[in-house]
Amino acid sequence: MSLLAALAGAAFALAAGTGSVAGGEQIYRQGISPRATPLQAAVGGGTVSAALLPCMNCHGADGRGRSEGGLRPADITPGALGRPLRDERRSRPAYDASRLRRAVTMGLDAAGAALDPAMPRYALSQADADDLLAFLAALDSRASAGVDEGRIRIALLGADAVAAPQEEIYGRRVELLRERRDDVALVIDVGADGAASLRAAAADAIPTIVFEAGAAAPGAAALVVTADPARRAQALRQWAERHAALIPQPGCADPGIAAASALALDAALAASCDVRTLPAAPARNLRLYLAAPPDPALRAAVARALLQRLRQSLGALGREVSRESLFEDLQRWRGVSLAGLPALDWTRGRRYGLDAVWVSRLDETRTRLLAEPGWVELAQ
Question: Which residues form the Cytochrome c domain (predicted)?
């Protein structure tokens, strides 16, 4: 950013500094007022809930705009808004807080000209408008968080022994942090349960990859390596039905276990009981349905593979990488195999990568799990 643009952005930030950044983020990302007041948006001659048309849908998490459906939404970062615009189509002066408030609520640019009709006009209270402007004033610093001249900071959890790639990317080295912080571009959690990281991603909107979702669901800022827990549970139930197998109650205190010829357990059930103490009969047909082999070395290998694959993404994205552009790239990973796992696919509408579940059988001595049949594709 030029010095002039930086000074203009700073002046805009000072003018818009009376609101709550957190409240403005809620309005920007969700179209919901922090005051629980319904927000309305006028577009195309009608009025709808602002929750259906939040700002982020078109302008992106970083405010830089994303082409979609033939439209190119404006760059609304402080550096862009805080400097005059003059091109072959139109010109306008720099925005200040009052002009930006008018643009959001009335659909008029800094020169008083009508904005594109596709831009909704939001009915905001004074307090909600102050919050939104406070958030917009902070967009430049938030978008570039984790990226500076010499470093790209990534938080890596659950794999302390994994080192950062040594090769620089456009003059930047990857710096791994072992804790989640606000100043990282990406969080990777390859621990056995990534639920806490998913909940944090929902709160702070930092792009996050977890190996296993646990009891949490990925939100708009998170991706999961392993398969959807609901689909894994469905696969277990289908196997149990085909083999007349019992799915025991948590704790494995189910009186029907002794008479059951087959048992089907998922990771949570297996963790709630000691299968070695079960009656002898089920041992010859006991199946565990897991997200992946229960092997910390595998999760560390996945972390290394993720970092190497990220190097390719960062190289392709160029020098002007941001959280937003990195997460956009992650959602285009197709057929990517990490450390011998089945190929994963992520898209904007698909948050779980794998379409396979790890199935193992307890051997007759009950001392080890056998990879039989191993990876099993889930039905679509």
Answer: 19-140
